[in-house]
Each structure stands twice: as structure tokens, then as C-alpha cells.
Amino acid sequence: MSLMITDECINCDVCEPECPNNAISQGDEIYIIDPNKCTECVGHFDTPQCREVCPVDCIPDDPNHVESKDQLMAKFLQLTATK
Fold first, then answer.
1. What is the rounded CA–CA span in Å between residue 29 and residue 11?
2. How many whole angstroms separate alpha carbon 80 and alpha carbon 54?
3. Does 5 map to a domain?
4. Are the C-beta atoms of 76 and 39 separated by less than 8 Å?
5. Which residues pair with 31 in a beta bridge?
6. Which of 33, 72, 77, 78 could disulfide-pair with 39, CB 3.0 to 4.6 Å?
7. Is the full-model pTM beyond 0.90?
8. pLDDT over threshold 90, residue 8
9. What range does the domain containing 48 cover?
10. β partners of residue 3
11. Within a domain: residue 7?
12. Distance separating alpha carbons of residues 52 and 65, to the nearest angstrom
């Protein structure tokens, strides 16, 4: 399951540089997570790094993008494949 950022985001800028897949970017009002790039850090780390650094705990699972660990690993392999 990819993650999402809720409107509780305070735009503190700490999550964006922590994302190894560059899935986090500044949206119109708050940061957003691209579900096509988010692997919950599967393949990189044991836990989602954005959640580790978020001071307001505003990064829950995205119920609109449910994925298994195997699917997240497949996405990681696709994102990191050498072209």
C-alpha cells in the first residue's frame, strides 16, 4: 500500500529528501506522495523513512492504493531497474 500525506501536514520539508524513490513533492498546499513511485521504502529500508521523520504523524496508508509487500517489491525493482 502506498502512503499519503494528510492536510495535517505543516510543510516542514523534512520528508521530501528522505524518500529514496523521489515520490514526495510539494503540492499546491501541502506535500504529496506519488503512488506510482511510493514503495513504503520496501527494497531500501525496513520502515518508511518519511514516517520516521514526520513531526506531526500525517502520513498514513493510502486506502486508494492498496498493495502487498510483493507488489511493493516489484514496483521497487521496476523503479530501480537499469535502462
1. 8
2. 25
3. no
4. yes
5. 26
6. 72
7. yes
8. yes
9. 16-80
10. 61
11. no
12. 21
pLDDT digits (tens, 9 = 90+) for 40-61: 999 999 999 999 999 999 999 9
User: How many Å from the N-terminal Cα to the C-terminal Cα in the chain?
Assistant: 26
**Can you give the CATH number for the domain in which 45 is found?**
3.30.70.20
43 domain residue, yes or no: yes
Rounded CA separation 27/70 (Å): 29
Does any domain span residue 59? yes
Give the H/E segment covering residue 53.
helix 49-53
Residue 83, pLDDT > 70, answer no
Residues 6+ apart with CB under 8 A from 27: none
Residue 73 confidence (pLDDT) above 60: yes
| Total tally of structural domains belonging to the chain | 1
